[in-house]
């Protein structure tokens, strides 16, 4: 005898909770929704009226109980206002990165209000393209550029950035976009930053996120964040804005690195749980102020 949808969801919730998954009911509903082509709320409504369990549900729940990431099973990750394609070989975007995007969006809107036309934004180490796609979606006046080293992640980013007019290149964040040196208005990065001995506790991250996207290099995990900072120094115009995600325990070190690199107005940004997860700063303005170097001229060309 087939189970009802309500019975199946309750069973799945118990199985996932026993597997150590905190959001067991949410995942149970989302997996059912994936199979049925319904939202979480629609699944709950169907369960109330006695709908049947969808075919393949037990198998999908068993995969999730093995701590296969939910996003790998559904093929999508929800990030701000977007639904991104994700899967094996690419870092699944996390909610804390949404705060980084908000800092970029706020800065770009201020620049636009101040008269910077079509500001250049560079995303260093774009991964799935979550940051670049969000910026392109929320600030369509911006010209977005993104770089990713991993061939697999680059392919996922290309899928997520299709139709956004974002310039996506495969390459190293250390050397990317030399043609934009000194001309960018905003640089953003969520680089790998985990130290080598700080292996993630969650099996989803430890076993399924690629090492290239996790470990930042060096004893403190900050080799790649320092490289992103050096690229920001190279890319930004006077008065340009840089924001970078990092671990909570790295906030002090990152702030000191920005100040040592000459950034001013260095400030930390907290994620949705109140943890210090990003730091921002600004390149000192030139003699003619923050508009120097990155604003388009009357002919539409970027000023040098």
From TrEMBL:
GO molecular function: nucleic acid binding; peptide chain release factor N(5)-glutamine methyltransferase activity
Binding residue positions for S-adenosyl-L-methionine: 125-129, 148, 190
Keyword annotations from UniProtKB, A to Z: Methyltransferase, S-adenosyl-L-methionine, Transferase
EC number: 2.1.1.297
Disordered: annotated span: 274-304
This protein's record includes keyword Repeat: no
Top-rank taxon, per record: Bacteria
InterPro entries from the UniProt entry: DNA_methylase_N6_adenine_CS (IPR002052), HemK-like (IPR004556), N5-glutamine_MTase (IPR050320), PrmC_N (IPR040758), RF_methyltr_PrmC (IPR019874), SAM-dependent_MTases_sf (IPR029063), Small_mtfrase_dom (IPR007848)
HAMAP family, per database record: RF_methyltr_PrmC
Protein name stated in the entry: Release factor glutamine methyltransferase
Gene from which this protein is expressed: prmC
């Amino acid at each position: 005898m087939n189970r009802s949808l309500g019975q199946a969801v309750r069973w799945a919730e118990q199985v996932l909770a026993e597997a150590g998954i905190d959001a067991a009911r949410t995942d149970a509903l989302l997996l059912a929704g994936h199979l049925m082509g319904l939202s979480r709320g629609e699944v709950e409504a169907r369960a109330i009226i006695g709908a049947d369990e969808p075919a393949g549900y037990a198998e999908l729940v068993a995969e999730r109980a093995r701590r296969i990431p939910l996003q790998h099973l559904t093929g999508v990750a929800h990030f701000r206002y977007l639904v991104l394609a994700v899967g094996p070989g690419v870092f699944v975007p996390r909610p804390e990165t949404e705060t980084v995007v908000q800092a970029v969006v706020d800065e770009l809107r201020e620049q636009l209000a101040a008269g910077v036309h079509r500001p250049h934004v560079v995303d260093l180490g774009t991964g799935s393209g979550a940051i670049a796609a969000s910026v392109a979606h929320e600030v369509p006046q911006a010209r977005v550029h993104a770089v990713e080293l991993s061939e697999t992640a680059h392919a996922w980013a290309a899928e997520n950035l299709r139709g956004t007019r974002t310039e996506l290149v495969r390459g190293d964040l250390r050397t990317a976009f030399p043609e934009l040196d000194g001309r960018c208005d905003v640089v953003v990065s969520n680089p790998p930053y985990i130290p080598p001995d700080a292996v993630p506790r969650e099996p989803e991250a430890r076993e399924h996120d690629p090492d290239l996207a996790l470990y930042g290099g060096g004893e403190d995990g900050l080799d790649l964040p320092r490289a992103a900072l050096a690229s920001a120094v190279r890319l930004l115009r006077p008065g340009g804005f840089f924001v970078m995600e990092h671990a909570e325990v790295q906030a002090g070190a990152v702030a000191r690195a920005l100040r040592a690199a000459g950034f001013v107005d260095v400030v930390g940004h907290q994620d949705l749980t109140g943890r210090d997860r990003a730091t921002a700063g600004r390149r000192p303005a030139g003699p003619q102020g923050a508009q120097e170097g990155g604003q388009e001229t009357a002919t539409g060309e970027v000023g040098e």
